[in-house]
Amino acid sequence: MQLEIEDLTKKFQDTAAVSHVSYTMEKGVYGLLGVNGAGKTTLMRMLCTLLKPSNGRILLDGEDIFEMGAAYRKVLGYLPQDFGFYPDLTVKDYLMYIASIKGVHRAAARKRVKELLGQVGLSKAADKKMKKLSGGMKRRVGIAQAMLNHPAILILDEPTSGLDPNERIRFRNLISEFSQDRLVLLSTHIVSDIESIANEILLMKDGEFLHTGTPEEILEGMPERVWRLTVPVHEASKYDKNYKVANRKNVPGGIMLRILSKERPHPEAEEEIPTLEDVFLSYFGEKAGEEDAIL
Amino acid sequence: MLYYELKKIWVKPGTKIVLLILAATLVFACYFAIHGVYYVNENGENEYGIEAIHKLKAAKKEWAGLLTEEVIADVIAENNRLNDTEMGRSEAVHDSNIVFGWKQGFYDIRWMLVRSFCKFRESDYYVPDSLAPEDARFFYGNRLLRLQEWLEEDAQQNLFTGAEQDFLIQRYQAWEAQAPLYYDYADGWNQLFEWAAMVIMLTMLTLNFVVAGIFSGEFGYKADSVFYASCHGRGKAIAAKLEAGLLFVTLVYFAMMLLYSGIVLAVFGTDGAGLPIQMSNVGWKSFYLITNWQEYLLILFCGYIGTLFILSLTMLVSARTKSSVIAVTIPFILLFLPSFIGGSSLEMIDKILGILPDRLLDVNQTLSRFSFYQIGGEVMGSLHVLPVLYGSLALLLIPMIYQVYRRLSAG
Asked: Looking at the partner chain, which of A51, A88, A97 has a beta carbon nearest the beta carbon of B4?
């Protein structure tokens, strides 16, 4: 299976949300990383046939997905960023309804719903109305609905927003298990979501792919190196101004800084092994610090 | 899929409210229909309820039979005899009530005398009191005569074409040719018809709040992305929405109408089912040659077609605009538009008003209206045109809703 994006562009009036993007995905987990407004959601909505591209094509095994229509959507699972549901339906009825519009037969749907409710830890909430669920529980229902039809292509837009740390771990394990022989594309601005499970990472900024590759390739391609340096409190602000500081930690005798810099910022600075969080900061700069970008 | 679409409608709190309103409508309509009839006892007091209905029925049944000139002469003679009694001459209200009680058995026939002997657009309740038994021979002929007098007036000359006038006269002649007609107690049908329009309109208006959300709801709940990204999201799932909407409307409409008519007819009885609709105060002038049970079927099915058309339009607007607020206004506009543009003497306006869908919801009134349309040289009444017109439009709207919703972009 091969999902090919060819010179894809989406313009809203004069603004290009996605601009001339090309990439080919096969089986595995793809992490789409970028700050808010980078074009991740627009790209995903095109991949789900919800938005028509202004230019370019998306091909599944050589066939245009918009021409494939229902045949493409039959192998697709999608969790939107802004996941909506029917508040008065129970969790079970909601999932059964979604299974029906996904073309899953009733008996198979019953079995699958039960199985997925167990996997997302919602078996006891099966008969609860959707509107009575907490934010994290709703998100878990959203993940379950995306996986109802055993999709060959699973697209998850910010799947972990609203999930607590335990739920995130459960989610990561679920995706790892599910992604065998499937293509999973998940977007996030939370680096830890994909750090351990993504086979490939797509860094997206201003509607374009800035850098793509395996986590190792991404780390190797990072234009800066990472340094650890402990400085007196009154000197810390000088480093904040002159360098990208990935982390600050109060330690006896001052503040320990994690600095991104091509050059050694101080003779006493010690080089560290970079992480994806460092990469994120390196590429997206100060914007990466907005909202809960690096967690 | 259809099961869960129906469930989505059913579980909404708004649907429960709608069903409560409909239950209240049913109770009120039955109450009004049953309490709209009263029996005046020998003391001149009004009695209401099922027992009173049975007493009145027994009194009217005494006059059931062929309404020949002799019977009409008997009615006029009896009316005059009662007027000449001491109580009949009295001006005291109590005495008048007692006399009314004596006359209530032939009350329906007395009303037909009012219609027959008054000018076409006039109504004088006391006209029968001035008749002599010999006048009975004019009873059937007067209907056409009054119509012709009215048509000859200047105001009507511009209102109807020659072909339309001929059509009307032919219809009146055809009715007269059946004379003498049979008379029977038919309060059940008359009461049923009187409140049927209210039941149909309130059913349609309340169901409107349910169907307005079927298509726009996906967007309102932000569930559209998952819906359209699903395998059947641009196909069978839309058809299931349509089926659910139409099925819900159909089930609730017929449940309301059959319960309403069942209750009213159970209380009053189905007597008079085969009477021509002209054998009543309201239907006397109608040019439609149908019986009471045929009018019932017409009310039932025209009401359904009208409801289906208007609510399909609501669904189309809901699908197109993604807004239930805008969609919910459609039936109100269609129902109240005639009130705003009505009252005009312009022929064109009258023609347009005559084919608005609200006429399908109030067949009892529409049957008495002189709205004509000429199609292929044939003159026909609005009730010959409306069911076919709006039935076809409703059938056209259904694939339109499907196509419109299919082509929408997710929000």
From this structure: A97
Asked if B29 and B55 sit in the same domain, the reply is no
**Could you tell me if B122 and B210 lie in one domain?**
no
Residues from chain B contacting residue A84 (CB–CB below 8 Å)? 218, 221-226
Q: How many domains does chain B have?
A: 2
Mutate to test the interface with B, among A49, A50, A81, A155 (most CBs of B within 10 A): A50
Lowest average pLDDT, out of A173-187, A280-294, B44-58, goes to: A280-294
Same domain, B178 and B221: no
Range A7-32 burial, b when 16+ CB lie within 10 A, else e: ebbbeeeeebbbbebeeebebbbbbb
Tell me if the bond preceding B180 is cis, omega within 30° of 0: yes
Q: Which residues of A touch B244 (CB under 8 A)?
A: none
Do B210 and B171 have their domain in common? Answer: no
Same domain, B192 and B148: no
Tell me the CB-side half-sphere exposure of residue B60, using CA atoms within 13 A: 24
Percentage of chain B exceeding pLDDT 70: 96
pLDDT of residue B114: 95
Q: B140 and B23, same structural domain?
A: no
Across the range B339-363, mean pLDDT stands at 77
Contact: A103, B223; criterion CB under 8 Å: no
Backbone angles phi, psi at B68, to 5 degrees: -80, 170
